[in-house]
Specification:
heterodimer, A: alpha/beta, 8 strands, about 30% helix, B: about 110 residues, alpha/beta, five-stranded mixed β-sheet, 5 strands, about 25% strand
């Protein structure tokens, strides 16, 4: 029995489902690289929000060392995808969202549904076609 | 019910601001009396914690829904605590009046 993984807190889901290389000189690799939500979040916190690892680790609810490992694996996956012209696909992984986010398939707005606002429609365009981001 | 939209300036024809804590203006829609007000964001140039302060402002105003481009981690936590609905839009060049129109079509 491996030790249980603590869930990593992810503030909000990425805005895409994946990335595709184009104009590759050789055949695009048929495989794809699976980037987990928590890896995306680690990369975002460290290299986009420019936080130091200690701060970012606290935010994600893991130790600094674990954060560094997640961040490293994110970088390596990106590097592999670039060098081997693989597609990158987002996968849910061991993430725990602070809130449940939903996305509207009509206007693509992403939103939360707080308990006080019981509503199963899009808050912007009122479409019924909304899905939870976790799916 | 009060809805806040982050805005670049203080008119209906201004562009939607995709920042929350550092948005220039907040457009407040009151659905009860159909009033539309604009208030400047006092913390637009705060060195840190702009998102937190903006979220506090939302709590004080008793807002139900905030429409912006993205929310920082601290602002998210606080808005969630207040039970305020967060809506994120990726459209960059949309005008405030267009968003209001979309809301009114509900």
């Amino acid at each position: 029995m491996p030790r249980q993984r603590r869930l990593r807190k992810v503030v909000s889901p990425p805005k895409f489902k994946g990335y595709k290389p184009y104009g590759a000189r050789e055949q695009k690799s048929p495989q794809e690289e699976e980037l987990l939500y928590e890896e995306y979040e680690a990369l975002k916190l460290a290299d986009y929000d420019l936080m130091n690892h200690a701060e970012a680790a606290t935010l994600m609810g893991v130790s600094r060392a674990t954060f560094a490992r997640i961040y490293e694996s994110a970088r390596r996956k990106l590097a592999r995808a670039f060098v081997e012209t693989k597609e990158i696909r987002m996968a849910y992984g061991n993430a725990e969202m602070d809130q449940d986010w939903y996305i509207c398939n009509n206007c693509y707005a992403r939103f939360t549904i707080p308990e006080q606002v019981p509503n199963d429609r899009c808050p912007l365009c009122n479409a019924e076609n909304i899905v939870s981001v976790k799916s | 019910m009060k809805i806040v939209i982050t805005s670049m300036s203080d008119s209906l024809t201004s562009t939607f601001d995709r920042r929350f804590g550092r948005a220039a203006w907040f457009c407040i829609l009151d659905t009860e009396d159909e009033a539309i007000r604009f208030i400047p964001n006092e913390h637009v140039n705060a060195s840190n914690g702009a998102g937190l302060k903006a979220a506090e402002t939302m709590g004080e105003l008793k807002v139900t829904k905030v429409i912006s481009g993205d929310f920082g981690p601290k602002a998210k936590q606080l808005l969630d605590k207040f039970g305020i609905q967060m809506v994120m839009m990726d459209e960059a060049d949309i005008l405030i009046e267009e968003i209001i129109e979309r809301l009114n079509h509900n």
